[in-house]
Amino acid sequence: MKLTLKIWRQKGADKKGQLESYNVEASEHMSFLEMMDVLNEELISKKEEPVAFEHDCREGICGTCNLVIDGRPHGPQQGTTTCQLHMRHFKDGDTITVEPWRAKAFPVIKDLVVDRSSFDRIIQAGGYVSVNTGQAPDGNAIPIEKDEALSAFDAAACIGCGACVAACPNGSAMLFTSAKVAHLGKLPQGQVEHAARSKSMVDQMDAEGFGNCSNTGACEVECPKEISINNIAMLNRSYLSSIFGSNK
Amino acid sequence: MSLTGLFLISFLFVHLIGNLQLLANDGGESFNTYAYFMTQNPLIKTISYGLYFFIVLHAIQGLMIAAKNRSAKGYKYSKKTKENASWSSKNMAMLGILILAFICIHMGDFWFKMKFGSLPMKTYAGFENEVTDLYGRVMVAFQEWYIVLIYLIGLLALYFHLAHGFQSAFHTLGLNHKKYTPIIKGLGTVFSLVVSVGFAIIPIYIYINSL
Q1: How many domains would you assign to chain B?
Q2: Helix (H) or strand (E) holding B34
Q3: Which end of chain A, C or N, has fewer beta carbons within 10 A?
Q4: Res. A248: pLDDT tops 60
Q5: DSSP per position, B183-200
Q6: Domain A2-99 maps to which CATH number in 3.10.20.30, 3.40.50.2300, 3.40.50.300, 3.20.20.140?
Q7: What is the pTM of this model?
Q8: CA-CA distance, A13 to A109, in Å (whole number)?
Q9: Looking at the domain assignment, is residue B52 inside a domain?
Q10: Domain that holds residue B28
């Protein structure tokens, strides 16, 4: 299949970028990233600068690949990362626009690569649990209700790719932050810091320059792990109780 | 944002019920005496000042958040998508500005004229006080097609604003539940339809009657 790609090219963080057109011949069995590899091989053989983009596991579990394809983070297919999006979802002769994640807290480093270290700092602000040192505890020493365990696990499925921020018209990181707060806060092991965690992670999120949540729900639609915005309501609840509650 | 929004939502409901008296076929007696009560009762007076304050607060908060969110997004995508969020949820600030402009026109036309203008007074048998004939002013205003049009545009903006705002306010307060959230969403849709259509009936009915 013959495709026209319009790709965001930007030489560096402080350089101006623009969309540039490329023609590429791909097979429908390729993943989107393999198609990008073919393009880069061609660019290298023509002694041109290859397109910089991030990728790692290519199994849909690491959260490294991050492309906005035709205005949608990770492309048009629901519940998948860019590496799991295959070219059979496109038609011969299509023009595909490829852009980096857009948010002030995710500055472009080069071409399609953005700096997502702001997520790391949100995690550092509260994404941990305190455990006593000593011997490993018994596996089933703390009973956890099945429903609670499942909803904590659903939140824990977040791979921190940042598609929620990329999809949000406000550049808000509420889905990411709420998934982390829910993942730890729904389990007994996470109760010690629960209220303080919500506040410190939200404060860090604001300090990084992410926007405010206006409940558009775009994050939930684009999330490759289909994290629910119900987690955001839970974060709002625990944030309120961290301010007004007695258990600070 | 959500608390002021919910307050304004409750106001809309009361305002609608009161104003439907405009449709009563009694030469304005019920509406004018109701308007008199609303302007004289000290409790209602206090609430109305609270209302003005909350409208302004809701608008200022909204504009500040919208400005911050715009800058937090920074660069926009060159290819837009409509598929991941409703139109109204992405245009709350624009809709809010439209509604604010409408409120200014609306208050200038009725509230300002009632308070500071020289609307004729009327007396009704069975009501001891002389009351301002706001009913007459409404009847005159809605004979003009362009005023009716302004109202319909304002109410359309209100519909879209409420369609997202109603359920969004609950979500922001953390009120989310497997069983109740779908009910809140359904209530929001019904409420925004009832309020905007209910208000729209008044100018349309008066305009058609005046033809």
Answers
A1: 1
A2: helix B29-40
A3: C
A4: no
A5: HHHHHHHHHHHHHHHHHH
A6: 3.10.20.30
A7: 0.92
A8: 5
A9: yes
A10: 2-72+89-210
Residue B17 has what pLDDT? Answer: 94
Contacts of A143 (CB under 8 A, 6+ apart): none
pLDDT, tens digit, 9 for 90 and up, residues A114-129: 999 999 999 999 999 9
- Whether residue A247 is predicted with pLDDT greater than 70 in this model: the reply is no
Question: Which residues of chain B, if any, have pLDDT below 70?
Answer: none
Residue B7: enclosing H or E segment and its boundaries? Answer: helix B2-19
pLDDT number for residue A131: 82
Q: Which residue of B has its CA nearest to A230?
A: B176
For residues A42, A46, A47, A53, the Cα torsion angle rounded to the nearest 10 degrees is: -20
Task: Read off φ and ψ for residue B84, nearest 5 degrees.
Answer: -105, -5
**Tens-place pLDDT, residues B138-187:** 999 999 999 999 999 999 999 999 999 999 999 999 998 888 999 999 99
CATH 3.10.20.30 in chain A is located at 2-99
Q: Considering the domain boundaries, does residue B80 fall inside one?
A: no
Residue B147 lies in a domain: yes
Tell me if chain B has a CB within 8 Å of the CB of A221. Answer: yes
Q: Phi, psi (5° rounding) for residue B196?
A: -70, -40
Amino acid at B210: S
In a domain, B78, yes or no: no
CA distance B78 to B84: 16
Q: CA nearest A18 in B: which residue?
A: B78
CA–CA min distance A232, chain B (Å): 8
Task: Select from B171, B177, B184 the residue whose CB has the most chain A CBs within 10 Å, as the one to mutate to test that interface.
Answer: B171
CATH class of A117-244: mainly alpha
Helices A230-244 & B145-172 angle (0-180, nearest 10): 70
